[in-house]
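Request: Not sure, any thoughts?
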Amino acid sequence: MTRLQKMIFIVPAAILGILAFVVIGGEIVLHLWNWLLPPLFGWREITFWQAFGILALCRVLFGGHGWRGRGGSNFRRRMKDRFGHMTPEEREQFRQRMRERCGFGPTTAESKGQ
């Protein structure tokens, strides 16, 4: 199968996948919202496009783009590799620098000495 033949198959499949996500995701948000929020809080019911907008907003705010899973596991793997090549002293130095950068309090070794 040539590259062009693969593209001819992949592009329509991708378009159908996106459309399926829009329809199914929008309908799920619509029905959950209209089922839960009006009876619980007295909020009004929403339309399909408002539900899709809420879904899109949540994906933007909470980062559910589908790419994060691979990137997050790749990050964990790289950090595990780095820690595997460090001596215990280097690991402790790294942890200490991260605590200082992130504004955490004194380490357990410092608190024991006081």
